[in-house]
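Each record in this resource describes a single protein on a pair of labelled lines. With that in mind, the following record should read easily:

===
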Amino acid sequence: MLARVFLSVTACLGAVSAQACSIPVFRYALDRWPADPYALEVSPVDARTDDVSHFLRNFTDSTPLNVTPVRLKEEGSSRLNFPHNAAAEVPAWSGSLDRVTLSSLTDSPARTELVRRILAGESGVWLLVESGEKNVDERAAAALEKRLHYLEQVAQIPENDPSDPTSQLGPGPALRVKFSVIRVRRQETSEQPLLKMLAGPKSGGAISTGPWLALVFGRGRVLGAWPAEGFGDEQIDEACLFLLAACSCQVKRMNPGWDLLLNANWNEALQAAGSGSGELQQRAASDSNKAALPPIETVTVTASPAAPRVEVSHHGLGVAAPAAFVLLVLGSALAWAAMRKS
């Protein structure tokens, strides 16, 4: 499943520079891949309402939203289309656009937390969409947290050559191996647009009746979305190691995934996060202390009519290292070294 997607990515190697880049995929995406814009098609009726009209009048290129408003000439429902999405395909949202709907389409508590974590330097953020069955959701969360804690202890980022012009880091947080989990309740009203976006343009907005997972990195790019049932250690490893490996395909559209609609000024925020100087030393210090890594942090996002709220829980985890995964990590390292020599 996931393996076939990732193997297909190697087909684009011939389209990039022969000089291999040693920046990990998650950081290359954060530095160099602007978020693709959604198309917000506004019906004539909705465009005349005060709040929507104000939004359209004040929207400029400096607005920190990856969305392009389009005024429709024909009557009908307003629509939010995925980036690069044909009009005939299922939209991310459709209906009557007003102040409340516009607010939920462009931002939400989970997305605010997601952006914060990425800008803090996390390699990737997993979102667990809960089914509502407590025991099933807890098992899915525990399995994911356990594997991520192990990966943080053993996974490595490729060595960076500061003299290589293809491997220069942009301003931002220190490089490190770090993953976390955001749990979203399936029925949370404020997160319904996010759930549609996470599920992707080909899903019709639904992944599974049970809990399901999505992995987000870069400037809000979703690597994929999968039912939690049957998505075990091997699949978690493959997704995470893809993000930690050197970026072999630097063409965004030839990599798997799709973008979320986020309210974030990435260039400005990355400048504020740091200049990138001393990043390798910070990473080395982080790697040398892997035995003392804190447990995986999981947040459960809820929203009340008064104000959004984010509950944070920590799970201490002890994990034994299976020999099979050690071989997987070794194989990934050898493959990357061979690519560097070629």
Notes: The first strand starts at residue 38 and ends at 42. Residues 1-19, 276-293, 304-342 have pLDDT under 50 and may be disordered. The chain has two domains: 2-36+108-341, 38-106.
